[in-house]
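cron nightly-structures :: item 1 of 1
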Amino acid sequence: MPETQTPKQTAEARLPGDPDKQQLLDRFLRVDHAGEYGAVRIYQGQLAVLGDRHPKSAMIQHMKEQEDVHLDRFNKLLIERNVRPTALTPLWHIAGFALGAGTALLGEKAAMACTEAVEEVIDRHYAAQIEELGEDEKELAADLEKFRQEEAEHHDIAVEHGARETPGYTLLSNTIKLGCRTAIKIAERL
């Protein structure tokens, strides 16, 4: 008789000291909410500098609107699942806007380099989270996959619009990626 395999459940293969399912999901939702909040603020900063009449403004506004949808979903999930947001939300408020405005002040290509760097980290971050979710979290995994695809689209748009032509691109991109990865680790816990 063939052996039937039980569907994978979230956090079922955890080791001693690993977060249990609730702790893992709390971390996921807390950091994802923080990230989407930060992304909205980055785009708001870019738009504040570039203005409504800039040729890239409509494209940036479109990406911001998608981030608004992601943030709204995480706002609802935090309430539904009784998860507190990161204690660092006021910092994300300032840092996100400053990153967006600062890169836009360097020029439209630097703003695109910022978008590319952030979205590359977030794409990988969501993919790793989806891998950890089991059959018991199909709906959350589906949300994350939809958002991951939109983040990948933002990444590709940024590349198409000159992100890699930014003077000092490698330094700027790597600095932003390091900042994003650091923010992820901090927001998971605080």
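cron nightly-structures :: done
The chain has a mean pLDDT of 91.
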